[in-house]
DNA sequence: GCCAACGTTGGC
DNA sequence: GCCAACGTTGGC
């Protein structure tokens, strides 16, 4: 089991919408590093859902439901991939970027180190810490 | 709205 | 292969 974090602007695709729809194909990723991360995802992996830009907080946990397959929305077929995500749990208390920055144990996570990466791995310890913060 | 960080493109 | 120009992301 691996742990991940994905980012989305809530105005583009929100956690609430994922909860409502019950499943989504995580498409549109056009960054090699993010794609490489998605290719490592396996069904059952936990995925923290971060709202960027307007909210800047982790708001819930999704699960990988289907491993990487070709992104049908890509112009260049076979170059990019999607995974299917399903909602798993809400964060009772969204964990803000501020909180992450202030936690000494979380200083190495990609969310801080590589602010533009939209799909990133998390260490199990980091996932546990964030889970505890989010209740 | 601005700008830093970063990725991509294209001329040389 | 280098690097300037440009585009995008995302925090502030």
Task: Explain what this protein looks like in three dimensions.
A six-stranded mixed sheet has the order 2-5-4-3-1-6. The radius of gyration is 14 Å and the shape is globular. The protein starts with a strand and ends with a helix. Helices cover 27% and strands 36% of the residues. β3 and β4 form a beta hairpin. With 135 residues, the chain is of the alpha+beta class. It binds a DNA duplex (12 and 12 nucleotides) through residues 7, 9, 31-32, 52-53, 56, 97, 114-118. It comes from Pontibacter rugosus. Pfam families: EVE (PF01878). Residues 2-132 form the EVE domain.
Oligomer: single chain
User: Would you identify the CATH architecture?
Assistant: Roll
Shape: globular
Specify the CATH class. Answer: Alpha Beta
Distance N to C terminus: 21 Å
Portion of residues within helices: 25-40%
Protein name: EVE domain-containing protein
InterPro entries: 5hmC_binding (IPR052181), EVE_domain (IPR002740), PUA-like_sf (IPR015947), THYN1-like_EVE (IPR047197)
Pfam families: EVE
Organism: Pontibacter rugosus
